Amino acid sequence: MSTIAQSSKLSLQGIVPPLVTPLTARDTLDHEGLERLLSHVIEGGVSAVFILGTTGEAPSLSYRLRREMIAETVRIVERRIPVLVGIADTAFVETVNLAQYAADCGADATVLTTPYYFPAGQTELTSYVQNIAPQIPLPIMLYNMPGLTKVWYEIETLRTLSSIPSIIGVKDSSGDLDYFGQVCQLKLDRPDWTVLLGPEALLQEAHRLGGDGGVNGGANVMPELFVQCYNALRDGDEATATERRELILEFQKIYEVGKYASRHIKATKSALSLIGICSDLPADPFHPFLAPQRERVAEVLRGVGAL
């Protein structure tokens, strides 16, 4: 049996934090911070970790640092939970190279966005995935992030790609619940698929539509909160799920600090620094929050009992 055939049995349900990449300086990984962060989320009950995604600032990191992040994460996790690795790149060959390195390190799966910068049509996107999948020696989760890549994995494209055995599901960060519901319907043909939602405020709605959990950035900071919400949804405890969701909505006020899409990364790293996990340094070209912004984040954290 091939490596892909064996590995494609990976199935995920629950909370999978898109891990930040802790830094101490430009192109310098914070090893101690990464250890603390991984211990924090694993002890919080998460089902897996996803590194080198949007929250992980992958497009802003050197290939050397991305490889270091993969190797260190796999080493620290020690097979306690699955490690998913983002392999997005504008170059086909670099995507394959990163996937191969992830496999060599012992990662469990890869996460593939649409190619970005040059927008691809759906026919081109379908061919791209069909051509790249056989060269990736790990299971693949497709990652729909049109807000940043500017390209959707349209439903008919996903239906076509669902015939590829090594594709194990979809992570959708569009925030479009109609689209998410249609993705969940694809599980009728691929019941082994995992469908995860990105926007953390919609975890409850996603579960009702047939979703399997969330890839929620806030779980870097408060993993137990998100795990408790998911577990309550899974167990049919709507009262607890609603109560936990209300706290998640309060926590999300940290994302109202700052400007532009980068505020989500800055706020998450700021929160992690405030609770003593890792530095708040983002990758270039971004700057960490200034003292007034950090205090606003701290105020939210105190309000939800995280600080």
Automatic annotation (TrEMBL):
Keywords per UniProt: Lyase
Ranges that cross the membrane: none
EC number: 4.-.-.-
InterPro entries per record: Aldolase_TIM, DapA-like
GO molecular function, one term: N-acetylneuraminate lyase activity
UniProt-listed GO biological process terms: N-acetylneuraminate catabolic process
Residues binding pyruvate: T55, V215
Keyword Lyase: yes
Active site annotation, chain numbering: Y143 (proton donor/acceptor), K171 (schiff-base intermediate with substrate)
Any one Pfam family match given in the protein's UniProt record, by short name: DHDPS
Gene Ontology CC terms: cytosol
Top-rank lineage group of the source organism: Bacteria
Keyword field contains Lyase: yes
Similarity comment text for this entry: Belongs to the DapA family.
Protein name listed in UniProt: Dihydrodipicolinate synthetase
Annotated organism of origin: Rhodopirellula maiorica SM1
